[in-house]
Amino acid sequence: MKVNARFVASATSPESFLRDRRPEVAFLGRSNVGKSSVINSLLGVKGLARTSSTPGRTQSINFFLINEAFYFVDLPGYGYAKAAQEKRRAWGRLIEKYLAKRPQLVLSILIVDARHEPSPLDLQMQSWLQHFGLSYLVVSTKIDKLSGAERRTIRQRTRKAFDTERMIPYSALTRSGAAELWGEIQASMARSPAVAES
Q1: CATH classification of 7-191, choosing from 2.60.120.260, 3.40.50.300, 3.40.980.10, 3.40.462.10?
Q2: What is the pLDDT of residue 86?
Q3: Which residues touch 121 (CB under 8 Å, ≥6 apart)?
């Protein structure tokens, strides 16, 4: 799939969300889990979504227009312990309002680190997605750091923890899992009643 992608806007409040009915695919996960790396590797573009070794850098909701047809939406990472408590609450409110108020959201991609057990915050995010009746899948990233046997074990563990079969092992480094993930994204677009409008 040939991809043309460009950054369009950042939003720090519901009032600054894009007023555009084109479908959206949201990326969610803990701070420093590698959301931006997953986005960049999917698009085959280095540095489009900002990556940083410092957690908590993404403090806004960032919209990237893909092939002039739909958006990738990078949400603030959650769970950064060193951020001020009020800031963490503000990020949580922003994420919750986005999830609750975007009828054009066709798929939410919950990114977790394959090397670790899903955290209570990861499971809480899954509960939010279920509460709002949103279509979602779990992407277990950084699998390039695991052996083949470890990958099989992790896949089973992650599926059990989230009680879902919709889970894709992924590596932003090797792009392993990219074709499967693009397939899920395209299938979500096909099922969406949203009509593309500019």
Answers
A1: 3.40.50.300
A2: 56
A3: 30, 78, 79
